[in-house]
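Pasting two entries for a bug report.
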Amino acid sequence: MEQIICVISQKGGVGKTVTSVNLAAALAMNRKKTLLVDCDPQGSASASAGIHRNISGPTLKQGAKGICTLEEITVLSCHEFLKVIPMPRGIFHEDDEFDLMQGQKTCLRTFLSGAEDLFDYIIIDTAAPAGFLTLNAIIAANAVIIPLQCELLAFQTLRLTIKILEQVKLTDNPGLKLAGILLTMYDQGEDVSERIIKSVRKHLKKYMFKTVIPRSTQIRELSIWCKPIVIRKIGTVAAQNYFDLAWEVMQMCNSVKSNLKKRN
């Protein structure tokens, strides 16, 4: 069975897209057939994976509405083992989400069911805050990764993100699991970062990835390169961090923790 992993946070700017793109690319470089699904109307994951934002042809919008097949909207990326369902910037609007809402919140899960025998991993990038597209992504997923920026506001938002996941597990996706919490934008020696990482390790240690993503100039330049760090700057510390994350995910996927609470 394929592993469908949704990357989610209620706070923007915590590294969701960077994590989604580089995790997907690192899995692909380990010769895992990987599909990156861009579920953010900004289309940043598509661009960062080497897909032109103004690409012509059908996109996730048509696929989610059942107009096109998976094969018709999947495009090649900057790596032979990585394919992308693109979301060119501005192609999805609020009225599109409304149209989907009148249909069903499981439309993405239904659409991705056709990928069962085609990919080893499916990574879904999402928008913040969670809208209907993101809800569809969570319902479609087997597991979730929560990037947690090492700053106070992101830490305070973590509880809201987990509550959303618990509710989806309760009502729409009982098999949903938490793959882990990924600490991002860590400044070693900086007081706030050290306090956040200490607190999270104290209270949520068993849910955390061992890998920590430090703040990096190379990561900030991702949008300029239009290629993942693990491909464009393969020898850097930042790239190695994402290879480490991919290794953890591969090790974890056969035994991900069923650790989202069921509320009575």
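Entry 2 (this is the one that rendered wrong in the viewer):
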Amino acid sequence: MKPMRKKGQTLIMTAIILPIFIGLVCGFAVDVGTIYFTHTRMQTAADAAVLAGAHCLPDPTRCSAVATTTDYAARNGIAGGEIVSGPTVGTAPDGNPDVSMTARRVVPLHFSRLIGVTESSVQVLATAEIGLANKVFNAFPVGLQVCKPGMTSPCPYSTAAKSVVTFGAKKNDKGDSWVQGPADWSGVELPSNTPTNTLSTCPPPVPFAVPPVDPCISSQPGFAEIKALIDEANVLISTNHPYVVVPVVDWAGCNGRCPLNVYAFAEIQLLSAVNAGPNASYITGMFVDYVNPGDIGPGGGNNIGAFAAKLIE
């Protein structure tokens, strides 16, 4: 009978201890879940903050990368006192500018107090770099003349001087002057890989080679083409979406349909579009941003800027 009594005692102890053990395990799981949830939210907030700050790096006169990163971190729930390092502007391993920050938060625990652990520290690090966009989607199909050595106004294009550019009057090889005439339209033919119309840079291995080496697009001459672009430009202007990205090409020696290289991309604010017949129609725009070709990934997308930002840590 004694062995039976011991078995009964074991069952009773198990019945008492098992719920307590399961409760402790569940309690610890809740604390671990709290730590994981906090880390995820902080990492997402830090990532968003440095990505926002990185967009200030190409032109510090527009905005401060440090101030923007701090502001976006606060908007996403990271208090100033939780930023333990940065935001700091530096240089990424590939040479592009970057901005980074480290944040730490103390998370109070509940069930872990039973074993003497009252809190846990959660720390996140985020770094974003910005570089030259090598690819855009749905570019506006006109080509801006690339600035070559010795070219004068509007080259070099300037944000500070608010350079105004005219499409429908291309640069040709007659003394590097801006001319206008039949077939001098500055329309380009985008790739046919709809619906994205992805366009990448394709500068020739020999700068400004004539004829261009390994061109990737073609000019799209003719009044019918420029008229369609004028109509599209007016729609964009009227709907308050005047900012477009255009390929930067070299029109030298091009008359009619010809192959073109894409040296870079520029952001243009469309100002006006006038249909005044085959030899007098034009589109004007304000130069916003310009970069030489480069690559830090796909870039472009819905971002109208010529720069692309990405997380690297």
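Dev reply: Rendering is fixed now. As a check, the viewer should reflect this: Helices lie at 2-54, 65-75, 223-238.
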